[in-house]
Write a structure and sequence with these properties.
The complex is a heterodimer of chains A (113) and B (117). The model of chain A has no long low-confidence stretch (mean pLDDT 93). Chain A is mostly beta strands. In chain B, strands 2, 5, 6, 10, 11 and 12 form a 6-stranded mixed beta sheet that branches. Chain B has a 4-stranded antiparallel beta sheet with strand order 3-9-8-7, with no helix packed on it. In chain B, strands 1-4 form a two-stranded antiparallel sheet. Chain B starts with a strand and ends with a strand. The chains are: A mainly beta (113), B mainly beta (117). At the A-B interface, strand 4, strand 5, strand 9 and strand 10 of A face strand 5, strand 6 and strand 10 of B.
């Protein structure tokens, strides 16, 4: 079974703090993704990575950065958290073919006060 | 333009009845995959069913089937014999071919299904 884990289920931070969200997958997948989910907006892609040290901007990269130093780990960084980044963050991984499904982690609900 | 459109924000179905959740998509790529995911209140996204653009037959997985109408660009999810545990958000998604493998999923806004006892 594919396993995607995220470092926290719930996180509360203050405005201006630097926030790290960690994601780890155990299936040797090339592709990893970070989404945020807000009511009525579905899932929006923040960044994705198709190889170690490679990254591509998604639809809403502003205010975020990512790091992928090892194949199994993909980190999302909020350099200076703001209240409008309060959201559910979902990490996913997959093989690279368009026929392959993405496997999701349990999500991190981030609240920025 | 939206890649994936789900026009039903919410749906209700009686337990043991069948329900259809609508999904239309927009792409000019001949190679693509269509996916449905379920998201219960716990938040985790669960993969349900996949349909490839070249598949001749509609996909089925247990009580889930996908009504794929390529010419109309629709990929509706049919859940038969609904159960209380089917109450959740359902997302339709599409992945297009990319020769570099740098492809991602485009999601719809979801449909919240409520199963009534």
């Amino acid at each position: 079974d594919v396993k995607v884990t995220q470092s926290s289920r719930y996180l509360v931070k203050r405005t201006g703090e630097k926030v790290f969200l960690e994601c780890v997958q155990d299936m040797d997948h090339e592709n990893m993704f970070w989404y945020r989910q807000d009511p009525g907006l579905g899932l929006r892609l923040i960044y994705f990575s198709y190889d170690v040290k490679m990254k591509e901007k998604g639809d809403i990269p502003e205010g975020y950065s990512v790091s992928r130093e090892k194949k199994e780990r993909f980190s999302l960084i909020l350099e200076s958290a703001s209240t409008n980044q309060t959201s559910m963050y979902l990490c996913a991984s997959s093989l690279p073919r368009y026929t392959d499904t993405q496997y999701f982690g349990p999500g991190t609900r981030l609240t920025v006060l | 333009a939206q890649k994936i459109t789900q026009t039903q924000p919410g749906m209700f179905v009686q337990e043991k009845e069948a329900v259809t959740l609508d999904c239309t998509y927009d792409t000019s790529d001949p190679s693509y995959g269509l996916f449905w995911y379920k998201q219960p209140s716990s938040g985790e996204m669960i993969f349900l069913i996949y349909q490839g653009s070249y598949d001749q037959q509609n996909a089925t997985e247990g009580r889930y089937s996908l009504n794929f109408q390529k010419a109309r660009k629709s990929a509706n999810l049919v859940i038969s014999a609904s159960q209380l545990g089917d109450s959740a958000m359902y997302f339709c998604a599409m992945r297009e071919y990319d020769q570099t493998g740098a492809n991602n999923l485009f999601f719809g806004t979801g449909t919240r299904l409520t199963v009534i006892p």
